[in-house]
């Protein structure tokens, strides 16, 4: 395993992660819109067909109805939320790694990297839960055609007016259930692939751009393989009318499995996986480039 050249700096992780997050949104938002629309589309009445037959159909219908702009619906919320969220996410990972090191030269084991990744998932939920709730509501209102919210801020105001801070944070437990194990998988698989792709005797910092893109893209796929079932439940729960699921996610799970079978927990799988690779490849490349720049700018920070 390559020796770590640079001591871990949670602060540098914070800034580089923020830049990686912006790269991720630009690369991945169109497929995120499609994913949410597929996950939340209503069950067709007898004799009617589904609103969207699948990923490609949803893509075509969105473009035909709303133009390319339709794919970027609700992007303001993730851009405002994702930069700080990824900053906090990478900061949490950096902190998790640092807390487990006895000396700056310690190379962490894969279970330790998984634990550091899980810590980052706890860190991000505070920002992630309300951001996701707003994003999902804006994405489905565009599909149903009734304009309830004028934009992200209006959505927050209305939710707060209706049910206080609990309304804004609806779905937090599900966001935690999704993000803690998925973040552990995300960072551990990225570090594992980086080790795999680093030639003997070379350091991680010398990895080529295609290698970083591949490791980042695959980490995104591993992350979502773990995250999709709780993500489907979360999208359903966060966009449901008030009081529809009194017992929280258990009710959502029961209803989904009863009506649509266990396979429904992997709804939107194609859209998620199509998006996961380019979005996370862009994210980790942005992170690594920003990290190199910060190490050059402030080597001792």
Structure keywords:
301 residues; 0% strand; globular; transport; O-acyl-L-carnitine transmembrane transporter activity; mitochondrion; mainly alpha; Mitochondrial carrier fold; MCP_dom_sf
Topology:
Blueprint: H1 10-40, H2 55-66, H3 76-100, H4 110-144, H5 152-168, H6 172-197, H7 209-239, H8 249-260, H9 269-297
Indicate the mean pLDDT. Answer: 89
Largest sheet: none
- By CATH, the superfamily comes out as Mitochondrial carrier domain
- Which value, in Å, is the CA radius of gyration? 20 Å
Which CATH class applies here?
Mainly Alpha
Q: Roughly what fraction of the amino acids lie in strands?
A: under 5%
- Globally, the shape reads globular
* SSE pattern: HHHHHHHHH
The helical percent reads over 70%
Count of DSSP strands: 0
- CATH topological fold name: Mitochondrial carrier fold
Please tally the helical runs, counting DSSP H or I stretches of 4 or more residues: 9
GO biological process, one term: carnitine transmembrane transport
GO cellular component, one term: mitochondrial membrane
Family: Belongs to the mitochondrial carrier (TC 2.A.29) family.
Subcellular location: Mitochondrion membrane
